[in-house]
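Comment thread on ticket #2218

A.B. wrote:
> Attaching the input chain for the structure job we discussed in standup.
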Amino acid sequence: MESQAVLDGIPLTQEQTECFIVNGFLHLPPSPDMSAVHNQIRTRATELGAAKCQNLGNNILPALPELTEVFSTETMRGALTSLLGPAYAMHPHRFCHATEDGTARQTWHRDSFWGHWHARSHVPYWLMAIYFPQKTVLSMGPTGVLARTQYLNKDGNQTAPFGVSRLSDKETDLVTAWGSEEEFLKCEAGSVFLMHYDLWHRGSANTSNDSHGVRFMFKFQFLRTVSPSLAFPCHAGLSDWGAYLAKRAHCDLSPVWESVWQSLQGVTSQAVRRTASGELVLSQKPEDCLAELEAGTRSGEAAREPGRIALAYSTAAAAYDPGQFAALLVDWLAQPMENFRARACMYALRALGSAACPPLLDRMDVLQCSAFPAAALAQCLDVESDEVIHRRALGVLSELMRSEDKNVRQATAEALGSLRCNRAAEVAVASAQCDTDGDVRASCCYAVLRLVSNGSCKDPDERGIVWEAMLEMEQRDADRYVTAYAAEVLHRLDHDMDFAVDGSSAEFPILVRWCTKGNGWTAREGTGRVCHFNANQSKLRLPCRGSRAHNKNWSKSSTTSNKPRRGGR
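C.D. wrote:
> Ran it. Output below, let me know if you need it in another format.
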């Protein structure tokens, strides 16, 4: 089975996968045969200048389309597929961070979702890929990271349910308690670092004292479109987390690591109930697990965050009746509680996987009370194989999209993307068309992208509805990410792209889209110009007028076998 796991590119080794799970980042050294590409990108960036590169914002990709070649190598495709599954997508947000001599270091932070806040996922659903086209030494201000902090939140006030995103240098005691220390991503020209989206990081100071010491770092984001349960496992062996605890035993997150590892291997709740060495976990009564979790999460001190998170996973693994434990957790979530406790509940429910779906779906009152239950349901549905559960969930989620709480609607929109049943895409499209919040509309379009990519939108009539709606939103919506997601959906429909159960997915050109709504930070009205970049041909191609990308009157009854003509300039 291992040879079938990642059919597109060179898969990560077991050691590389474990290293990413534990530390939150992974270095992919440059390939010798790509040196000319890296030199060309560095030369072009230098010609544009640091200020221009940064001001381009999301449009740095169409300005430097050679960047797609960096992410089209077998090494990159295999690494991204190993962590995000087949048919992953390049997110429309990207940025060039260019620093010159005298640039001060940043504050420790974790990225928001373009100014919005979502529940954080321990299983990789989003990744950052940061690329350095030049050799980057310490004086040039390489990115600094706090290894192992991708699982840890810092709470602010009750109005910020998903935590805050800044960490000052005065809080070094917190970093120590989290079992981390700063590591600088020094590297050779052409290096790429894959980072868990939630890893705490910062740009360090540029003290190069050299006019040629400009440090270009291109940040890209990639996202999962296919459920972990549909991906083939990359590795059959068990992981020994003890080796990673030798130096930081006081911060034991091995229950989290084991759960994430198994999720990447496509397992569900029952398989989580074992130790890293393969021994059965000592079973406990669900009520005892709840009592342990309640006692261990009474303190909201930020320094105790690792213990709270580890306990959420260890209790989920120990309960001999996952369904009953999930029901107890849902009952507990019905009570008023602090964000840090609700977050621990969410992670415990996610670790229980499909067993948590029925009790969550039974409690509309709980799903409506905050975003944490809906965010838990989203990932539990993603590993649920029962079609009856999915059809039932569609009705529940449709009702939940009417919530007055924007955070609940956003989490619900992500849950829609986890469904594998007919008409889910129609519900996501309808929600995208009527919601007043741009972030919710964007999340609905991401759900449509997932449904199209995982094969849940095969009905010709439904695909026609999706096509017409996405074309309208791509042309007219005021939110840059709504239009960009819509363009990606159209791109995949245009190339008849969806994931096959056998793990194969056709190679297709990366979408390179010039956004005319601003630089990625400041919005302007307008539409995007869509083009496709084929790394093998090294040129931009515009869809011809005869293709579906330019045909507003494409019939709803058109089938996916109608191949568009691919002319271009």
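A.B. wrote:
> Thanks. Noting for the ticket: The chain is about 40% helix and 10% strand.
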